[in-house]
């Protein structure tokens, strides 16, 4: 799926202070299947942007087209359906449910079809290298393994776009590189579009395109 941002802006309101302008008229196009590294210094607005692209937040102004659809013209219910159908999200923290096993966590987004999806969930766990952990609880896994489980959960809906917001921020360098490599490989295999927030220049250089943000703007 391709993504077009047209003059996206985001302001946050602050008590007794002027609004803070976090995104300032952002324009770009991401082609279907492209792997994008989103980089920029802390506070540049990367998370704010990726939350809007992932339909978890609305811009103050501007448009976002996913495969030609003007997403924010829809109501919240529409955004929710669109997100569930097309988008996978991996965060810096894994947000796995501690009282559910790994396989149950992967099946949570598709719980009403969990019996039908079991094989697929196990295949994904095998692909991300943690099938042997399927009946264990997240607390028994290492940080890297937990993040692999979070990726598996993001993949269960066969998303056409994956957003990953510093998914390796809590991991050591080697484990982090493995996780980012896994995201790249998964995107190549499935042809899904990947937008990855990273501070790793080596990895960013392997992306099809680097979008660099500075102070709420894109540096071209
Ligand atoms: N809900 C909010 N209310 C007010 N200000 C916010 C809110 N969310 C983010 N900000 C501000 O917006 C700016 C951009 O934040 P954002 O998290 O998008 O940056 P970032 O590039 O992802 O940074 P980092 O690399 O440190 O995660 C920051 O100054 C932040 O304090």
TrEMBL record:
Sequence ranges assigned to domain ABC transporter in this UniProt record: 3-220
GO CC aspect terms: membrane protein complex
Record flagged with keyword ATP-binding: yes
Annotated keywords: ATP-binding, Nucleotide-binding, Transport
MF annotations from Gene Ontology: ATP binding; ATP hydrolysis activity; transmembrane transporter activity
Entry's family note: Belongs to the ABC transporter superfamily. Macrolide exporter (TC 3.A.1.122) family.
Protein name (record): ABC transporter domain-containing protein
